Structures are given as C-alpha cells and as structure tokens.
Here is the input.
Amino acid sequence: MNYETVIVSKEGMVGVITLNRPQSRNALSAKMVNELISALDEFEKDEGVRCVVVAGNERGFSAGADIKEMADMTTVQMVMGEHFFPLWDKVGRYPKPTVGAITGFALGGGLELAMSLDILIAAESAQLGQPEINIGVIPGGGGTQRLTRAVGKSKAMEVILSDRRIGAEEAKALGLVSRVVPDEACVGEAKKLAAEIAAKSPVALKLAKMAINKAFEVGLSDGLDFERELFYMLFASEDAKEGMRAFIEKRKPEFKGK
Here is the structure.
C-alpha cells in the first residue's frame, strides 16, 4: 500500500509507523486514521514483525484530531465510526506489543493514541495534554478513562478540566510514560526497546500483554486466576520448552512463536 500520511518500514522484527503530516503537526485526519489502521493490519499479519513502534516526526507526536475536518461532523457520523474511533479500538486491542516515541506535543487525540500503546518513551521536550475542553467537548478516544487510570482522579481532573499540560519528567513521575530521554534519542530508544521485546517469545508476549491489560478490567482475585490459566497454557507451547532448554544449556533461545 502507498501511504501518504504515515511512513511505514521494517527494521528486523520491528515494524515502524511514523506519523507524517508535518504541516498540521500530525493532526489525526480521517486519511491518517485509515492509513494507521492499514499499517497496523499489515504488521499484525506479518509473522516477521513481533513489535511495533509508533513515532512522531520533527513537528512532534500529534497535536490531536484534525479540528477543521471534524467541525462539521454530525452525531450520526461519530456514532457510525466515520472518523477516528476505529483506530482507538484497533490499537487498544492490538495483539502485538507496541511502543510509542513521544516527541513534542501529544495532545487530545494524539495523547489518546499514545495512551492506547503499551509502553511510552518520552523526549525531554514532550508536552502531554487533553485540551478538548477549550473547544467545548471532552476527550472521546479514551482520555477520561486511560488518563485517570494512569495518573489518578485528581490529576486527570486538573488536566482535562483546565487544559493543564504535563511535561515529560512529570509524566514519568506519574507513571504515564516509562522513561524520559534526550529529544534526539527518543525514536532510537523506542526502536531499541522494541527490538529487545521482539527477541522474546511471541506467544509469551501476547499472553503477558493480555494478563497485564486484564488487571485494569477485573479485581485481583479474578486477575490472578486469569494469569494462572495463561501460565499453565504456555507449558503447551514449543517456545516455553525451547526457552527452558536454552536456559539449561546456557545458550540463546530461538523462539518461533509456536
């Protein structure tokens, strides 16, 4: 597929999607949303890709939804998913691990996209926020839910109700991002981490991700039961046998995703 608003590439076992609408600070247009979904689909089907990086460009990660495009949309169009909601569903349920490289602004829908990813690496200059209140709406792509789970009720209220921006170091302290690195190293660090993840068992990665996500949906007892079931299940995988044999034989395992 020929992409116009994103740059799609593969680096070893890592798929890389770079947002590329610099003239609009990577605002999420319908076209970009569709291309993001297509790129994610492409990497999901590619057994050679085991982890995906989503990155911004020199203008930042994403300033949010394309307001010019969204301004005249109707409630029916929104409900029928004619804009960006299919993207949130796609990223939120993506089976392979995802890493976000957050440079510059990640605002509104841009932050919601970032929070849908599994691990976030932030550049020192990163600014995160949910400014939807300024145009008379609220976050609609998971912002009220994911931000609250990440930083707590009081901080989420402050950010969403007043459009207070969160800097990179504060985001790290709050647990919203995993680490903060120099601006010029952000994308490289995200790719490096993705490569480390991609070297692990694809089966174990998928189930580990499922177990962690379940922790946000159920109580501790149910979560522990779910984790135990997945743990037992992995003993039927070839990857588990290979990993244990490799450990005993003091060699690097060769995982095949089976």
